[in-house]
């Protein structure tokens, strides 16, 4: 029997990076799910093309979430929705949340892309929407830059992880009943000249709270990350999720599940991309079979109330 594996961080789009509509999107996604070495389940949000459309036209907030809803309906019990919003379009975002969580059964808010959509989680509109997510009892997935490169860094860009976690913690302390997912906090890059933030994220959370908070979860993006043994040792095992940031930017046929994020931008995935590889990395990092089961699916099932 295939092991169950829930990935909580997947971006999908029925438009290619060239802007061309993919009419065979669901067929291609189904092929990927069926051909995996695991019983794969995804929590998905809209990707790429939709993000830039939302910036120009807030009516795309509901449109992109409707696309996600339609994909979820094609794959009941296998694909679950995450609601993409931007607090800068408050009314459209609130409406999308009410429909996604109130009617469509979405399980998460996010990914919250403050660097791209130009907002802070402590903005007045953000605080109101985060409070609304807390009322729906869905976790909020917050983008935290995974690593920094000396050439790529600029304040407020995607790599500015320390400013991003500071913003997230300020918001978490203001809305204490919200649940938080530290998106791609544990990871690295498939190239040499980078500094991963993983250890520093763990230090900041430990330093600020003195322990790992009850309402925080941490995503492992890259299972070959050097910080993985520390995560297994220090983070409560019921607080660890698998969220690889896999996207549908390549294809169809899409890149194999497990292909690392940067492979969409010309880098090579430095391992055989499949679930067996991830399980192997977890074992080498000291995870027991029981802990692997938690990270593979049980923590996600509980957090998203999937069973
Ligand atoms: Zn992200």
Strand/helix succession: EHEHHEHEHHEEHEEHEHEEHH
Rg, Å, rounded: 18 Å
- In total, the number of domains comes to 1
**Beta-strand content bin:** 15-25%
Derived from helix and strand composition plus strand pairing, the structural class reads alpha/beta
Give the full name of the CATH homologous superfamily.
Metal-dependent hydrolases
What is the residue-averaged pLDDT?
A: 96
Give unreliable regions as ranges: none
Task: Profile the largest sheet.
Answer: 9 strands, parallel
Could you tell me which ligands this complex binds, including any ions or cofactors? zinc ion
Describe this structure in words.
- This protein has one domain: Alpha-Beta Barrel (TIM Barrel), CATH 3.20.20.
- By secondary structure, the protein is of the alpha/beta class.
- Helix 7 runs parallel beside helix 8 (198-209).
- The model has no long low-confidence stretch (mean pLDDT 96).
- The chain has a 9-stranded parallel beta sheet. A two-stranded antiparallel ribbon has the order 6-8.
- The chain contains 11 helices and 11 strands.
- Residues 111, 143, 183-184 line the site of zinc ion.
